[in-house]
Amino acid sequence: MISFKQLPIEAKAAVAAGVVFFSMMLSRSYLAEKLDFRTRRWLIRLQMALFANTLMLVGSLHVWRSTVTTFTRSSAASSFCFMLWKIAVFMFLALAHSSFFTLLFLVAEEPYFFSLAAYTCLGAYVLLIFFLFTLGSVEQAYKFLAGRGAKAGTGTKNRTALKPVLSVLLTIVLTVVGLLNASQPPTVNSVEIPVHKLPPAMNNLKVVLLSDIHLGPTVGKTKLAMIVRMVKALKPDITVIVGDLTDAEAKIIRPAVEPLGELDSPLGTYFVTGNHEYYTSDVSNWFELLKSFNIQPLHNENVKIVSPKSASDWFCLAGVDDIEADVLRYSGHGMDLKKALRGCSSEHAIVLLAHQPIAAKWALQERPDINLILSGHTHGGQIFPLNAGAYLLNPFFVGLYKVGQSTFVYVSPGTMYYGIPMRLGSRAEITEIILRSP
Fold first, then answer.
1. Cα–Cα–Cα angle for 26, 28, 32, nearest 5°?
2. Residue 420 and residue 338 in one domain
3. Which of 100, 144, 284, 338 could serve as a FRET partner for 115 with CA atoms 20 to 30 Å apart?
4. What residue stretch is flagged as signal peptide (predicted)?
5. Is residue 7 left, alpha or beta, with left meaning phi > 0 and alpha meaning psi from -120 to 50?
6. Which pLDDT belongs to residue 299?
7. Stretch (H or E) spanning 294
8. In what order do the strands lie in the sheet with 350-353?
9. Are 410 and 372 in contact (CB under 8 A)?
């Protein structure tokens, strides 16, 4: 029987990742209600950072072997330039691994340069792993189809060197493109949605949808202030924030949140939690902070949005807690649709705020009379090649969906980004929704 010491380092990393994952599940199931918020907050973040890093170790070893070890037998291996290259690859991998720990130590009003560099390397790391794997698979397929077996010749060596060089070049180009794309202001996307049973007096009501701003290591006050200015320029009747506003504790990042106080939609500004709010373990303090800025959290509750023209014309705006609260066993929180829709009859239009598209699906299974659901969470995949995974894991991916005869679901691609300051194959968005009375 092979001992743990005899296992290759990739297998050891996989075992370590499994142990960390098991500890995460154990702590979520049995320790959640026994630990105070501060301890739980640090434990969850530390576990997630360790889990991500142990998984990444396998990829990092592959990157090192492909971009460094492959060339150690070449004539250039003893040159000064190759030494610099080895240092550059090592620093790149170290920064990528360190990105997950910046959330523990480097969160402030504005992002630290180190955090931006670390998360940029993480995005480049994802791209590089993808290209190394893809080109490696193409190479193996070519060998198989050509029937060349395992013979090594000059042509084979050239192709072996070509794979990492091409992967690195593609990664650099797409990293620059992704950074430039994400640095642009969010696009304003105007969408008209017919809402069944919306009073005629409320026709053309304007709702501005924000989602996934992710105030934290790489998004700060300056970007939030820009978003607020853009929202105010649209002059919405209602503004809604459907989760993942933050990745940090309210006390630490409070100065960065101050621009939200400038939102002045006449029919109110509303907020529901996303999964990342629960990762902060600081939801109660966030609710109080948002209330101080005249933003109303909808904690499994609803409000009547009354027409300025007639008090008898109204619709029900409801919000549910994110489903991650149930997974984390976050005390006093969790998706409760019955409570959220209490008093919302099918005689009036119902608009629901639910962070995750899967929560939207569950809500419609329980209450098919909901007319419109506004969600986020997917980021539109944010960066290639993660788009495919986000598409497969969510029942609604991005944009507008019609469900049944009179129900619509709109999924925002996110107003900023999470961590990695890049977007490839997606674009940050502020959504201007015009509600139409049929």
1. 115
2. yes
3. 284
4. none
5. beta
6. 96
7. none
8. 301-306, 314-319, 350-353, 372-375, 407-411, 399-403
9. yes
385 preceded by cis ω (within 30°)? yes
Three-state DSSP at 209 gives strand
How many residues comprise the chain?
Answer: 438
User: CA torsion angle for 30, 35, 37, 38 (degrees, to 10)?
Assistant: -120
Nearest to 186 by CA among 391, 376, 322, 354: 376
Query: Which amino acid, 424?
Result: L
Distance (Å, whole) CA 67 – CA 123: 17
Whether residue 170 sits in one domain with residue 120: yes
**Residue written as tokens 């792993």?**
129
Tokens 């360790």, located at residue: 50
What is the DSSP annotation of 45-83? HHHHHHHHHHHHHHHHHHHHHHHTGGGTTSGGGGSHHHH
369 shares its domain with 356:
yes
pLDDT, tens digit, 9 for 90 and up, residues 197-246:
999 999 999 999 999 999 999 999 999 999 999 999 999 999 999 999 99
Question: How many domains does the chain contain in total?
Answer: 2
Full domain range(s) for residue 264: 186-436
213 and 354 part of one domain: yes
| Backbone conformation region of residue 317, classed left if phi is above 0, alpha if psi is from -120 to 50, else beta | beta
Separation of alpha carbons 77 and 54, rounded Å = 29
